[in-house]
Specification:
The complex is a heterodimer of chains A (about 150) and B (about 80). Chain A has a domain at about 10-95. A two-stranded antiparallel ribbon of chain A has the order 1-2. In chain A, a hairpin with a 5-residue loop joins β1 (about 115) and β2 (about 120-125). By secondary structure, chain A is mainly alpha-helical. Helices cover about 50% and strands about 10% of the residues of chain A. Chain A has six helices and three strands, in the order αααααββαβ. Chain B folds into two domains: about 1-45, no CATH class; about 45-80, no CATH class. Chain B is built from three helices and four strands, in the order ααββββα. Chain B has a two-stranded antiparallel sheet. A two-stranded antiparallel sheet of chain B has the order 3-4. In chain B, β3 and β4 form a beta hairpin. The termini of chain B are far apart. Classes of the chains: A mainly alpha (about 150), B alpha+beta (about 80). β3 (about 140-145) of chain A pairs antiparallel with β3 of chain B, so a sheet runs across the interface.
Chain lengths: ~150, ~80
């Protein structure tokens, strides 16, 4: 019994699934891989394929390979990692308010006055009417970006 | 809102702070309890205004991971007279 081979496919598949989950903060730094996290799903797919080979060996060739106990445990943990990832990217980050009352195209943007980084009050009207540094005339438009972050 | 961080990041455009979420509420962009420790924060949103202050382009994302890309806004701004 001790002669059975170590079933490395199970562990490699498990580690690939974990890597697919844990690498999200890295891939989220680039807009292309944040908007559609395909590298993470690629890692999950490769991990799943490798894992499948390991399971086939553990249960189909159990005389030769180990993994009848580790296999189901690692499979459960891998599925939890993939499932939690899917929950985050397909459900959690889509939980946003309806914002039905947000200003729409063709409407005049509501006026406001807010402090800038030097604590000087800045109005939307002044942003629209003040030429940028070095420019002779006021800007053709203004972009308002509402963002969330902690700084 | 940190002046030093803006400077370090090289941002030359205007950064405004809305600590009481007054303007965020006026624009109906409040995402209640979504911040750290359950604070109210803004949902991400981008508006392009023409020189008279009329909105010409809006992006209200359905997924807060996915925001407008700079090239999208530049493309929309090309239509401004």
């Amino acid at each position: 019994m001790n002669q059975r081979l170590w079933n490395w496919h199970l562990w490699a598949g498990f580690l690939l699934c974990l890597a697919g989950f844990a690498s999200f903060p890295f891939f989220a730094r680039f807009p292309v891989t944040r908007d559609v996290p395909w590298p993470n799903f690629l890692l999950f797919a490769i991990g799943g394929a490798v894992f499948f080979v390991g399971l086939k060996r553990a249960f189909g060739q159990s005389q030769q390979y180990r993994g009848k106990i580790a296999g189901p445990i690692l499979a459960t943990l891998s599925l939890l990692a993939v499932g939690f990832f899917c929950y985050i990217v397909f459900y959690m980050t889509r939980q946003l308010p309806a914002s039905a009352g947000a200003p729409h195209v063709g409407q005049k943007a509501p006026e406001f006055v807010l402090p800038d980084t030097t604590n000087q009050p800045v109005s939307l009207a002044s942003l629209l009417s003040t030429p940028l540094v070095g420019a002779p005339v006021p800007p053709k438009g203004v972009v308002l970006v509402f963002y969330r972050g902690y700084w | 809102m940190s002046r030093d961080l803006c400077h370090k990041a090289g941002y030359s455009y205007t950064f405004l702070s809305d600590p009481k979420a007054e303007v965020i509420r006026r624009y109906d962009l409040l995402h209640q309890g979504a911040g750290v420790n359950g604070q109210d924060i803004a949902r991400p949103a981008e508006f392009l205004l023409d020189s008279s202050g009329v909105i010409r382009w809006v992006n209200l994302t359905e997924d807060y991971r996915v925001r407008a890309r700079p090239e999208q806004i530049i493309e929309a701004a090309k239509a401004l007279k």
